[in-house]
Specification:
alpha+beta, Arc Repressor Mutant, subunit A, 135 residues, 3 strands
């Protein structure tokens, strides 16, 4: 599309200004960017065969890591059960996080029957009633 310019001298000034801007932009881009050969020569970088030869071999652990959730479920499955304070001490979670885990994971997602009982000592303990799922 060709634009019509009423003043030919103004059109020449716009073209010169546009070219100067384009050159300045190109110079700025060239100054800030490094070439790929400069990047590959940075210290600590390995490329090609050197990277393959020196890369450590990843090994899988023999057994999966025991998670905090596994610890909580193990304590809840014991016949004595577990108190909120005991679960806080074992996991390092805050009280609201332990209660949220009991509600969201144990009861809702896993569907386990979670019992809450107050003992003779006045401490509320939670336990899973076998591995029966709640209705």
């Amino acid at each position: 599309m060709v634009s019509k310019v009423s003043n030919p001298e103004a059109a020449g000034d716009d073209a010169v200004a546009h070219e100067a801007t384009a050159q300045a932009t190109a110079a700025k881009a060239a100054g800030e960017r490094r070439s790929t050969t400069e990047k590959s020569k940075r210290p600590g970088r390995m490329h090609g065969e050197e990277a393959v030869a020196r890369k450590p071999v990843a090994s899988r652990p023999a057994s999966p890591k025991t998670t905090k959730a596994d610890l909580v479920l193990k304590r809840l499955r014991s016949s004595k059960g577990a108190s909120i304070e005991g679960l806080i001490a074992e996991t390092g979670w805050q009280a609201h996080s332990v209660r949220g885990f009991l509600s969201a994971m144990v009861k809702k997602k896993l569907g386990l029957n979670l019992l809450s009982e107050v003992g003779k000592d006045g401490i509320r303990r939670y336990r899973i009633d076998g591995d029966t799922k709640s209705a």
